[in-house]
Amino acid sequence: MDPAAPPLRLTFGAPHARPGTAPDFSDFPVPEAGAMRRPPVDTPAEEMRDLAFGMIRILDDAGEARGPWAEALALDDAAQLEGLRHMLTLRAYDARMLLAQRQQKTSFYMQHLGEEAISCAFQRALRPGDMNFPTYRQAGLLIASGYPIGTMMCQVYGNDGDPGRGRQLPVLYSSKAHGFFSISGNLGTQYIQAVGWAMGSALSGAEAIAAAWIGDGSTAESDFHAALVFASSYRVPVILNIVNNQWAISTYQEVARGSVGTFAARGHGFGIPALRVDGNDYLAVVAAARWAAERARRNLGPTLIEHVTYRAAGHSTSDDPSAYRPSDEGASWPLGDPVARLRDHLIARGVWSAERHAQAEAEILAGVIEAQKQAEAIGTLHQGRRPSPAEMFDDVYAEMPPHLRRQRQQAGF
Amino acid sequence: MATMTMIEAIRDALDLALTEDSRVTLFGEDVGYFGGVFRCTAGLQQKHGVARCFDTPISELGIVGAAIGMAAFGRRPVVEIQFADYMYPAYDQIVSEAARMRYRTAGEFTCPLVVRMPTGGGIFGGQTHSQSTEALFTHVTGLKTVVPSTPYDAKGLLLAAIDDPDPVIFLEPKRLYNGPFDGHHDRPVTPWRGHPLAEVPKGRYHLPLGQAAIRRAGTQLTVLAYGTMVHVALAAVAETGIDAEVIDLRTLLPLDLETITTSVRRTGRCVIVHEATLTSGFGAELAAQVQAECFWHLEAPVERVAGWDTPYPHTAEWDYFPGPARVAAACRRVMET
Fold it and tell me: What InterPro entries does its record include (chain B) (predicted)?
């Protein structure tokens, strides 16, 4: 035995602040907007490791779009204004559904507050036929692809207008036509499925690519690692997104990540090019997503994107974040609010104003409320028209086997 | 007609499926260039190309998870888990994802895939190469679970499974790959050659999932078995001289309850045989169904013969395996009641 050897010990990752202490992001580096280089999409992974450690940012504090990613983006004013409307729609939708849950019109809800840019912006890189494999916090993909929010509400209420027939928890939407794969309630499972879907596309000689989504906490699941192995092994046309919103319910992202490196850097262990992006910067997310989509479409293989953001609200309606983090922590988040940043950029460009913004917010909210009225006219969780309980026995198999027919009879249908 | 081993019959089915349906894609550990550790895919990559039959990283979760995505895209993945004992990392994908995809999306997304796995013991494989995992699948609604016992059935059931619109777990009793093993491990190995149920027609034929087969007609006792235990049961019955009816379930879910109950109502006695451990095994489900449907016809309690509730031991394999002597003893006990 070596008398000089210290006793062995472990390191336990912890957030910088807990309830009762002041928020502290002092060691969270925020690189300057426009500073990150934009390599050609066919650059070998090992020659662009810096992109996994820095951060692609376009919008600066003054609302200016800066740097090579902005120059390559070429997103016109109309498209940017549309992006702003998508984010405002998602925010208004969230607010109404949160209220509906408090009014017991549904059992459960999960909002996107602070993370609206990522899903709303990402969808711009996809084409009809492409497929997202989302988590529960990417409803902006649906909104940006034109899915009716009234139908989303019907899903949340589990009423007779729910295409999923009330079988899934609220917010676990599905729409093949809108490139939105059915959300699982299990974390991480969709990541490898996205890779398999894109393999299927490539094996069929098709043109569609897939986008996988996962949260910072769920990157610890084996599904994440299997997905990276398969994506790397077969150079699969897939975009592997990680949304790092700092919190996995009450667990700080450092517990899944370790205290060094970034989530994006995990791509390099598999030879997968990786980008780390300011997830509260609508333009940066579009720029990164398009870069990755081009790689996929040109058979250059997968790209990992870490979207850095902050979950400004609770994990779900069942969560009270004031129990584990300072209640004013969100206000100190260094990357700001995604809606305000795009709004300020558009105002700085002279194509938008505070008045028009307020007017747009009111119009969008009115539209959401109108859709809500129509959805509630069909029903809510406990009232109105719901799918018949007899449907409970449908779709277990394509054809109902004898034992299920017997059970349906026993249940009285 | 040519006789085939079960390996050859499975390979023939896969070859046909690859030839006739461009959506069919085979993958798994060592299934590509090498053709699988049990040789079920030998030559298929060479014949059909690497994109139709390929090797994967050692990740059962990855294999099944990728197959789910591929099936959702519209292909027909037929994947191999090298041993059923290795399937546990894929279990979440099978149970929470594949089995429920149709249900949770009201039919918008489906999972027509086949997961093939060699199952069962008798090869000195120890506790990680011998397990019979069928009850872990029959308990999961949304899956179909198939266990063939002959080369003829293996081909017809596998082709039906590949064409099925829902996920199918296809358990291949590895001790039957090369011959109709009846449990007499101390006797010379019997090959499939010359066995009537090893005569495999050329070309496509389907055996519908959910239909049992009566392997021996009888009047005094009904023996329910599947996979390797069909052959063990036939040997055991022959040794007792009891006029027993031996039913090969072939598909555990959906279950052919009608064939079972018709027989038990006639014989009034029932012995259930499986190699998997006893407690909460599929035999418990069978016993419950038999007593519920045939209670007033039963002359004796239903008996189960199964693997002991221990892990599959290595050196004590033949003391663990529910061989002909144990099955015969159970048959005699049931007849004496």
Answer: THDP-binding (IPR029061), Transketo_C/PFOR_II (IPR009014), Transketolase-like_Pyr-bd (IPR005475), Transketolase_C (IPR033248)
Q: Is B57 helix (H, G, I), strand (E, B) or coil?
A: coil
Q: Which residues of B touch A174 (CB under 8 A)?
A: 104-105, 108-109
Phi then psi for B312, rounded to 5 degrees? -70, 115
Q: What is the pLDDT of residues A35-62, one digit of tens each?
A: 999 999 999 999 999 999 999 999 999 9
* Mean predicted confidence (pLDDT) in A385-407: 96
Contact criterion met (CB < 8 Å) for B109 and A397? no
Q: Which of residues 193-232 of B touch A (CB under 8 A)?
A: 210
Domains assigned to chain A: 45-382 (3.40.50.970)
Does position B1 have pLDDT exceeding 90, yes or no?
no
Q: How much is the ipTM here?
A: 0.97
CB contacts < 8 A (A, B): 140
CB B201 within 8 A of CB B257: no
What tokens does B58 get?
């050692």
In order of start, what are the domains of chain B with their CATH numbers?
6-198 (3.40.50.970), 213-336 (3.40.50.920)
pTM, rounded to two decimals: 0.97
Nearest beta carbon to residue B106 from set A165, A195, A226: A165
pLDDT tens, residue by residue, A273-309: 999 999 999 999 999 999 999 999 999 999 999 999 9
Q: How many angstroms separate the CA of residue A62 from the nearest CA in chain B?
A: 43
